[in-house]
Amino acid sequence: MLKNDADEADAKLFSFGGGGSSSAKPSSSTLDKETVYKMDRSTRGIAVIINNKNFLRSSGMDRYPRNGTDVDRDGLAKLFKMLKFDVKVYNDRTKAEIRSITKEMATFNHTNYDAFIFSILTHGEEGVIYGTDGTISIRDLTAEFKYSTSLVGKPKVFLFQACQGHEYMDGMDVTDAPQENKVSVPAEADFIYAYSTVPGYYSWRNSVNGSWFIQSLTKVFEDNAERMDILRMLTRVNAMVSTYKSRTGDYYSDSKRQISSIVSMLRKELYFFPDNIVEQN
Q1: Which H or E run contains 79?
Q2: pTM over 0.90
Q3: Which of 36, 108, 124, 176 could form a disulfide with 31 if both were Cys (CB 3.0 to 4.6 A apart)?
Q4: Which residue out of 66, 123, 205, 256 is catalytically annotated?
Q5: What are the pLDDT digits (tens) for 29-73?
């Protein structure tokens, strides 16, 4: 059994036998609309947080509450408000309730917004995440947003704090060597997905401090969102997550590692505060 203030995986554990610059700043209206997403509304958009901590017996996860997840939820809510999003928080939601939330958000009129963020903190396995009563395909969960007419051409950010399998990741030593017009785009365009781990592996969460991924993400974004685009920030999140090492006191799961992952179909650079971009010489 894992103790308080210990690292935990976001899946059932199997048994193994026993400040921007002060330089001149162009306004977002003068930025190249072909290369930078528009982001100038007083409220940038809606940011959804689904936080599943306690699970029903039908899920098979009722013995594995996600202690520490409320720290992640609160950190994300604070971050999204800082990024000027309208934050909507949902706790302990079933499969049907999660699908209802995604359908509502996909059919909502986002015309007066610049972007959309969806985040879910829960248990998971490869290709699926858990509602409190069972699993949902990640593909099914995100599919409805591909046909949201009011989000066409706008960035859609999805954050998943969940396991993607049952493998532990070991570490290895490394040596360093030297919108004004109508938009017609592919249905899969303008999405970016950030996962707390890579397919096949556990995702770690500290029972007191929260998950490695969300804590790294909130730290990096709070420090850099005023001047850095999302892909650079998520790359820094990858780097920060990779420095963690599990502390479980268990032979099989102690001293394990993790790397988060990014899948981007963005067509432009995504800055949350494009007015702070300093012109490059």
Answers
A1: helix 69-82
A2: no
A3: 36
A4: 123
A5: 556 778 999 999 999 999 999 999 999 999 999 999 999 999 999
